[in-house]
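PROTEIN FOLDING TASK:
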Amino acid sequence: MTEQDRRSREGFLRQGFLPVDRNSYPLYKAHDENNRLSEMTAAIVTSWGSAFNAVYKQINGYLCSAWFTGGLPVYFEIHRPWGTGDCSLPEIVDVLYGLSREAGLPFLQIGVIDGLFLKEYTGIRGYHIKTGYDDDHSEYGFKTGDLLELSGGINEDKRRHLKKCSRIPDVSLRPMTKENVRFCLEIEEEWCRRQDCPVCGSLVGCEKKALEIMVDIFDDTVYNGVFAYIKDTPAGFAIGEKKDENISFLYFAKANVPDLNVYIYYMMVKTYLSGAEYLNLGEDMGKKGLRIFKTHLGVHEMWRKYVCTYTRA
């Protein structure tokens, strides 16, 4: 965090905001069902909140969190209440604008807005509103049937990776449970030892820190997970969630053996997530390798997430 971020965060804490951490998980889970294609699920917000030093406050039923991204403008995420709530979205924007100014920010910025809801945010009166999006932070949406499809030129790379993986001796999949979920941390630790940490952690927080919280909140009656073993050693994993027949999410995945990642994604969808029409694979954060990996999984859509910046008219 920059010094300005620290001062702003301290300002929000003085106004009654609390840190987003594992203890806030039940509150976010209670708001979880209001999201559609957004990645603002309880798992994502809770696990990544600490990595981004996020703080939250419940305001008239709306769950509002401020996120800090190392010198970039502080932005809010908004989880709506069920029904109409105790006040309207314009009233919440007014409150957040006042809190932001009191915390020393020059404007209010609200991010991670689904295109479906953009008109609601841009139609609020009394503000100059600037809207934008960044493809680095748009989400990859796949139909699960397309992820499992292996024919055609669009799936050539996927077939090649799966074929290579089939030649690895003694590969097996095992379900993730509350009892074995902590093996994820061993796999992540091995992966982290090979990385350049300043690059790994740039602007997107520390994935290891986020995974530690995901492991703590993991419930095998809510979330799905698999481990890929080579002989008797865990070499990769995936954690996801099927929300309903419309949407599922893949939150974390890692493999320490070449080509194993594609196999884990494929088998995770086939085993647990194929009952949903779409899989949200999240963003690529501008990382070239991750972008190549996701675009080569097959036919996909880019789900834009918009940012609205508010200044008083």
